[in-house]
Write a structure and sequence with these properties.
The protein is elongated and about 60 Å long. It has five helices and no strands. With 152 residues, it is an all-alpha fold. Helix 2 packs across helix 4. The chain has a domain of 105 residues. The chain is 61% helix and 0% strand.
Length: 152
Amino acid sequence: MQHYNQDIIAWANEQAQFLRAGRFDLLDIEHLAEEIEDVGKSEQRELMHCMAILLAHLLKWQRQPERRGASWEIIIRNQRRGILRRLRETPSLQPKLDDPDWWQAVWDDAIVQAAQETGLADFQESCPWVREQVLAESWLPAELATETYCNP
């Protein structure tokens, strides 16, 4: 019998074999439950990561108009599509978009990324755009001086 802490891949394959064979008495129930919970957490982390990348690029678009280019547009478009696809495929992630604490955590990650990539440091403390703007296919933020702000 494989041990969870020694080789998780071998353990997972063995657990799958036990399940398929109906050998429920051999299952490592506690670790299986943890791994199933981790799948959900992984999906949540991936949504957060993709949204932070999107927000960071929207910030860069806004704050560095002289550096705007096709590559940024492609990244923004691809992140939006990926986020929307993930939300369609996993509808239970949708409530995250209504959670102000989640948005704040994503924003915090986005400004760290944007700061590292731009050298800028004076970003707003909370997201200046509403969710509909952030996810709208053709929306891009105006330069900082002309942007109107409201929280998601």
